[in-house]
Design goal:
Largest sheet of chain A: 7 strands, mixed
Largest sheet of chain B: 6 strands, mixed
Strand content of chain A: over 45%
Oligomer: heterodimer
Order of helices and strands of chain A: EEEEEEEEEEE
Structural class of chain B: mainly beta
Order of helices and strands of chain B: EEEEEEEEEEE
Number of strands of chain A: 11
Number of helices of chain B: 0
Structural class of chain A: mainly beta
Distance between the termini of chain A: 36 Å
Distance between the termini of chain B: 41 Å
Shape of chain A: globular
Shape of chain B: globular
Number of strands of chain B: 11
Radius of gyration of chain A: 13 Å
Radius of gyration of chain B: 13 Å
Helix content of chain A: under 10%
Helix content of chain B: under 10%
């Protein structure tokens, strides 16, 4: 079945450590996205990528980094510079411009 | 930058009552998308509206896109407990950046 896989589902880290969240899709979608969701809040865009080897900052990119070396993969690194990293992270993809988004199951990151 | 607001933020209804959430964008949208997120889950795409004034129905759900393409609404007739969740609208910009609304959390009381 085609879809988006995010791993792990739950992730725990100590403050000051960088952590990388995985996002893999086999939908052959060109565009991929990372969103952050805090409890009771909406989705805020961190980074997005329209094509391999290209990505743009979203609304809250500070403290995060991404890469898009392969069409299928869009990993997100939460660096120690991110002041409040504990959140629910959602990866999504779309077939192209203006198209709807298909989401993964998300990763719940807890930093203590 | 583009801002997308939704009202109300929360809504509690008795099962069988109707429910409406409204979405307003600070900029004109090329299209509007609606998503539903169940508690503990991820957003799931419901529908996309493209044309000014467009109305689409999915069983008990009615979606409308405003004439100016800056606002939209979702109306649920005779709510059921399965309708519980948070409903988000989303509007893509010209550069593929997709901004989500603030969401409306629906609670249905049996």
């Amino acid at each position: 079945d085609g879809g988006i896989t995010q791993s792990p589902k739950y992730l725990f880290r100590k403050e000051g450590q960088n952590v990388t969240l995985s996002c893999e899709q086999n939908l052959n979608h060109d565009a991929m996205y990372w969103y952050r969701q805090d409890p009771g809040q909406g989705l805020r865009l961190i980074y997005y990528s329209q094509i391999v080897n290209d990505f743009q900052k979203g609304d809250i990119a500070e403290g995060y980094s991404v890469s898009r070396e392969k069409k299928e993969s869009f990993p997100l690194t939460v660096t120690s510079a991110q002041k409040n990293p504990t959140a629910f992270y959602l990866c999504a993809s779309s077939i192209g411009r203006q198209a709807s988004l298909h989401f993964g199951n998300g990763t719940r990151l807890t930093v203590t | 930058g583009q801002q997308v607001m939704q009202i109300p933020q929360y809504q509690h209804v008795q099962e069988g009552e109707d429910f409406t959430t409204y979405c307003n964008s600070s900029t004109t949208l090329s299209n509007i998308q609606w998503y539903k997120q169940r508690p503990g889950g991820h957003p799931v795409f419901l529908i996309q509206l493209v044309k000014s004034g467009e109305v689409k129905k999915q069983k008990r759900l009615t979606f409308q896109f405003g004439e100016a393409k800056k606002n939209s609404s979702l109306h649920i007739t005779a709510t059921q407990t399965t309708d519980v969740g948070t409903y988000f609208c989303a509007g893509p910009s010209l550069y593929q950046k997709v901004t989500f609304g603030t969401g409306t959390k629906l609670q249905v009381i049996p």
